[in-house]
Design brief:
Elements lengths: L11 H29 L18 H12 L4 H13 L5 H23 L3 H26 L2
Helix pairs in contact: 1-2, 1-4, 2-4, 3-4, 3-5, 4-5
């Protein structure tokens, strides 16, 4: 198999946008978490089981951290497939549209989770974003496996 490498940088725009959104969520997490820890008078204990202390914070505070963690999960697949498409020279057209759609759905997912956390809505948005990601993977697989 002979695959030529041509970088198509258009698809890197949604990659950078999702990275920037992730860092915005990181900042929002700490802007809400640190005051909540102070208000609770919590003494951080390195011996505590992972997550136990933070589970005592109000749900609206925890939702930001939960979402930040979610942005460290499935989006890693998005980054890999978007970079693959860029290297294959297939980062425009439908793939670029799919990438921006994925980013938009992940932003919506973040807002649903952090502002009200309606699980049924959040799952629906996650499911749709997963379908978009599968389409991107399919497109890359068709190019690589031909």
């Amino acid at each position: 198999m002979n695959i030529s490498v041509t970088v198509d940088s258009a698809i890197l725009q949604p990659v950078v946008a999702l990275v920037a959104w992730t860092m915005l969520m990181w900042a929002w997490m700490y802007v809400t978490r640190i005051p909540a820890i102070q208000k609770a008078g919590m003494k951080l204990d390195p011996e505590a089981i992972n997550g136990v202390q933070m589970s005592t914070l109000p749900a609206k505070v925890r939702w930001k951290a939960d979402n930040y963690n979610h942005l460290m999960e499935q989006p890693t697949i998005f980054y890999a497939i978007a970079l693959t498409l860029a290297l294959l020279g297939a980062g425009t057209g439908i793939n670029l549209t799919l990438a921006w759609t994925y980013v938009g759905l992940r932003v919506v997912h973040s807002l649903v989770q952090t502002l009200g956390n309606k699980i049924e809505v959040r799952f629906g948005v996650f499911f749709l974003s997963s379908l978009v990601l599968i389409a991107m993977i399919w497109n890359a697989a068709c190019l690589v496996m031909r």
